[in-house]
Amino acid sequence: MGEQAQIYEFGDFRLDAAKRLLLKRDGEAVPLTPKVFDTLLYLIENRGTVLTKDELMTALWPDTVVEENNLGQNISKLRGVLGRTGASTATS
Hints:
alpha+beta; three-stranded antiparallel beta sheet
């Protein structure tokens, strides 16, 4: 009853934090591993904030030592899934 839905819409996507789903506008689910989903959710929840690699590593892998390339792999997977449509919207 008191649970608030956490839905984020951006570009052609909709992220449902409670159901841990990333959907395209047509409703098709986008498959993400749990850690890649966590990475996307953390970035969305902290939008407008510059995050360091250390902050991301600590947030995504608390109390766990992992190599920095794990973060790079997650970001790379997200770029592949989301595409680079937002990067080309600014034109002169």
